[in-house]
């Protein structure tokens, strides 16, 4: 399928969806009712009562469970369907966020110099039981056949939640022509763990993105992406009940969420069936190195996790990690992530051979992708917030960013930026350009060129 692309360099916080209007769908089924003047939607496995803002007539349904709690034996598994719940569930409180981890804090890359740093978790409500989504609907009494925007939050695959966004604004910015859905997904080590199998180390997403070489028998790779895909399937199955049209779904993400959007564009080799969305938007896409699951860096990260949780000498390290207390596991998660080079992220998607079958550039080069429309937007200096103000040497910065390049390759790459001393007069300017172009701008431009071939 040929995908149509628009490329911009401005990101306002408004709804950037390119949607065409069409005639309303026939009513899916009369499973929208009202209780005490508030809307109730029957999803089959649960009934959720939302609330309506009388000033905007936008109804919100918060903390809808779209998957079973990924706890206990489900910690490192693919998401499962939620159990049936009796009675009416109040959908009026924001959900707990998934376990969080920040970006790197080290001035050097741990793949050059080893020891991980310890870092305390922020004081914020978190839980492994975090697979929830929020739905915002305009004029729910008459909503029918509306476009749907599904937003995937950013945070470098290691942090973020849906409660920190002005979610109803998406509905308002669409002039009440779209339903907005916000999802949470497993993050950091909780989204990606792998298991040791004899001499080989296999990563599977702990809660989100601790990775591995192939789909292993004991767990699931790229669990955070599988959560997102499960939420998109939920939208296809249930959004009609809220007045949405599953054939008019646009997925939109920012930073790591935009990187996730890219993963869904290439998922299953660009042949996801049935389709999950029609259009896609990426804002400041974070395109981080995507290794095979058994590459040296994912292996290093898994070893760090098992060492920090006292699982390294266990006969079955995977079983040991499942048994580790969630807070202890997240302490290890934070220790590993904070030891990374400054504001880089280590628990990210991998090539798993099933959901992500190959490097995204290979899939895009074949022009076999999911979706019909892609809008990508980015900023000029994307690297500004991810670069140490105290950088003093452009060549060393390139070395820290790309530890596996040869000395000659590092010198060559750095020379491209030091030569621009008129437009990039300082080491900091040059380092910001390196960071922004390698993680946001140039790779997205490359993907766009591949799709426009």
From TrEMBL:
<feature type="signal peptide">
    <location>
        <begin position="1"/>
        <end position="20"/>
    </location>
</feature>
<dbReference type="InterPro" id="IPR050309">
    <property type="entry name" value="Type-B_Carboxylest/Lipase"/>
</dbReference>
<dbReference type="GO" id="GO:0016787">
    <property type="term" value="F:hydrolase activity"/>
</dbReference>
<dbReference type="InterPro" id="IPR029058">
    <property type="entry name" value="AB_hydrolase_fold"/>
</dbReference>
<dbReference type="Pfam" id="PF00135">
    <property type="entry name" value="COesterase"/>
</dbReference>
<dbReference type="InterPro" id="IPR019819">
    <property type="entry name" value="Carboxylesterase_B_CS"/>
</dbReference>
<keyword id="KW-0732">Signal</keyword>
<dbReference type="InterPro" id="IPR019826">
    <property type="entry name" value="Carboxylesterase_B_AS"/>
</dbReference>
<dbReference type="InterPro" id="IPR002018">
    <property type="entry name" value="CarbesteraseB"/>
</dbReference>
<protein>
    <recommendedName>
        <fullName>Carboxylic ester hydrolase</fullName>
        <ecNumber>3.1.1.-</ecNumber>
    </recommendedName>
</protein>
<feature type="domain" description="Carboxylesterase type B">
    <location>
        <begin position="38"/>
        <end position="395"/>
    </location>
</feature>
<keyword id="KW-0378">Hydrolase</keyword>
<comment type="similarity">
    <text>Belongs to the type-B carboxylesterase/lipase family.</text>
</comment>
